Amino acid sequence: MSNYHIKHLEEYYKVYRKSIREPELFWEEIAEEHFVWRKRWDKVLSWDFSKPEVKWYEGAKLNITENCIDRHLRINADKTAILFEPNDPDEPAQHITYQQLSEKVNRFANVLKKKGIGKGDRVCIYLPMIPELAVSVLACARIGAIHSVVFAGFSSTALSTRINDSDCKIVITSDGSLRGTKTIDLKSIVDEALEKCACVSTVLVAKRIDTDIHMKEGRDEWLQPLLDKASVECEPEIMDAEDPLFILYTSGSTGTPKGMVHTTAGYMVYTAYTFKNVFQYRDNDIYWCTADIGWITGHSYIIYGPLANGATTVMFEGVPNYPDCGRFWEVVEKHKVNQFYTAPTAIRALAKETVEFVNKYDLSSLKVLGSVGEPINEEAWHWYNDNVGKKKSPLVDTWWQTETGGIMISPIPYVTPTIPTYASLPLPGIQPALMGENNEELQGNQVEGKLCIKYPWPSMARTVWGNHERYKETYFSAYDNVYFTGDGALRNAVGYYRITGRVDDVIIVSGHNLGTAPIEDAINEHPAVAESAIVGFPHDVKGNALYGYVILKEVGADRNHDNLRKEINQIITEHIGPIAKLDKIQFTNGLPKTRSGKIMRRILRKIAGNDISNLGDTSTLLNPEVVQEIKENVV
Ligand code: WTA
Questions:
Q1: 313 C-alpha vs ligand 1 centroid, how far in Å?
Q2: pLDDT, mean of residues 361-382
Q3: According to the model, what pLDDT value does residue 621 have?
Q4: For an engineered disulfide with 230, which of 107, 206, 252, 496 has Cβ 3.0 to 4.6 Å away?
Q5: CB of 487 sitting under 6 A from ligand 1
Q6: pLDDT at 313
Q7: Contacts of 164 (CB under 8 A, 6+ apart)
């Protein structure tokens, strides 16, 4: 029996039980057998959730790029590591072999070194889905610099906040990005952001769209000529197991985004292990995850997990509906993709189109389908399973988070029988708990509560960059001695988990986590706005869309509301990005509040979702009359 690759259900249960009974032995054996270490660990795990402090493989020394690249060169140098599929279907795909990837990463690492970047320095990467993105991430890891990738759809304000929060010395960007028919001028977004970032002394610019852009003397440099001059040899920096590998920002329900810090060894072991099992990856498979590397899914399951297994990982620059809604399936046919991993929002958007877009292509290569990012509703599950998977490729609904680093609850294809909308069973090493109203752990099956994890796993985020207190407060204070996920879940009669959605003020829109507070803060900057409250409401493509209740300063003033709506969305776009725009805005004279002054979001959510039959008891509100007004003016 192999602990590393689970192939049968009995094996899963056996491995799972072992991982719970002897977690240290379990993770020790996996680490020993499947990775390259420069020095062995002294201790597999030490932990204390009350601090909270967690350390895996303490004392070990390694470099993750030796595991993701160098060790494959002996027998797989000519195997494709990254298969780049450009936005334009007429532009040829690029097959970057492990040998070429090694050279590219080393050159890039040498360029970074020349710019004075070394171990522990923070590097901001703001790039579209082009090979330079994956290469720059790995180049940072090669020299021990901490990468902070910012999704290239974020605005200049969001970018500058993230750059300043982790004090990045350098920004890597491109002259622009191609998304369907659109060209986006990324460099000018960076220029604007950097007006507020004194910490950045260098900007390296990759060429993608070939237009004239402004290059600031002494700060900005084209990347390619520097790479051409750099050596293809670069010794890896030897890292401690617990040295930070990267920072990735995620929205919280309050305040600025949290820079989740992931460390080296545990993250490597867990993402590699889960990649192998959840996708049942076999040696010559072609694996494709459609996420952007700007999110955790791209970090763990486009770059690190697949490459640590010597896989071929597809990187797609484009969008699902360009040149038409058959693009995903055209790419599956073209590259004979075996595992396909995407988000429910993409599935729902494509399911609205004629199924001819799917049926036109030969999808017989597919063996596994995956879903991630939000609950997948039953209709979308069946559409995906029937039309794409032809009812023969298992569909794995994978639940996890930026904070967890890797997939936590998921079926293992060909092993775990699937049930639509259920993420099913915890992966080995993961100990979920559902907490009840009185902070007690709910025992047995057929219970619903708040989802927590009660034992450490190797890829958990170790802290919030620069703010350990916030880490403790957000994840370890709701309940004693367990990690709180922010999600609700139920456990059915056979012990399967179904995630029911966020239980805090994070709203998932098209798979993107958005905190309500930062959006409200942005809106409140509009000179006409006194106060606002944002809630989510069900949307058939995005999963949730945003609904804003806005109180204006001048009561009863003659305002041109549609213009104001545009201005409010403009402010949100500038502060956060277009992904956070509101679908609906209702101007109101008041917001329902408790006597202690807290906005009753439950009521606002129900009204926005057109579910007004049962608003509960509103008599205890400070201002019950406003509920009637809001109900009457719903948009
Ligand atoms: C939600 C994405 C239901 C959940 C990897 C979680 C899901 C948040 C699923 C994390 C799923 C993710 N079913 N909900 N399969 N996967 N979520 O940090 O609310 O971008 O807490 O990480 O997405 O989003 P994040």
A1: 22
A2: 96
A3: 85
A4: 107
A5: yes
A6: 98
A7: 196, 197, 199
